[in-house]
Amino acid sequence: MAGVPPYQPYLDVPPSPFRWRLGLRPLDLADWLEVDDDRVADLAEKQRVMTEHPTTAFCALDDVIDESAEVLDEIVAWLDRAGVGDGLPDRSLHPLDAAGRLVQEDLVLLVERDGAPVCGGGSVCFPNRWDLRSKVGRTMAEIHAPVAELNDTLEAPINKFLMRLTADRSYWRLGWGVLDTPALYQAVDGTADPRPAAATPADHHLRVERETLRRLPRTGAILFTIRTHMSPLGAVPAGATRQLAEAIRALPPAVASYKQLDDVGDELADWLLGLAADGLESRPSLE
Q: 153 CB contacts (<8 Å, ≥6 apart)?
């Protein structure tokens, strides 16, 4: 959780003008999920969240048992092929809940209702300050309504992509943000730890999300996975500090507010540029 994220999505962001992009890339299903050195810690944190906040971290429509069972079957099979099938799923749980406890990713199930994809449920232990329960049963436009300017740009492309997605072609994308805490559990219902009262730039963390989308072959449901990587802002790899500063500065006011960077974005950008000026060459690189 504290290592340097292996992705740098801010490098792909044109400095100006900002616009939301799907940024989809073809996914080889051999690389569908991630297994790394944080696996034990991530699964332990998921277990803690599910024990302490079960109704926040899991929610599903009543009629998605079959689709959820396919999710569980696909995840168990993938883990077995990857050689990390180190635990049997708890079959006493809802299958989507059981599936979520086996992997580092959060899981969101999309099902078709009345000719449109809606959120059928999810196992989300590491939400980035959003509420799963308020999304279940909602359309994509309703789910994304709180995201500043996103529906204006991507509502139609998102729906078109999801309706055309086939089981033989899966995709992945990246998202990023900067938070004032390293905590993965960022629920907004009062169950997360309070935010720091006065976080300095050095206290902030880069949050990178690797997201995948695949249509399940048997039921036709779509599974959206979210793997969250966290690292101190000061650990941004050599050569990327300036680009991240420029990406933060390029955010329109409404988007900066949505990302909760409206009050601190300029300070963070200045701090990152200071790191670059102080000798970026001596800092770690992913190359």
A: 19, 20
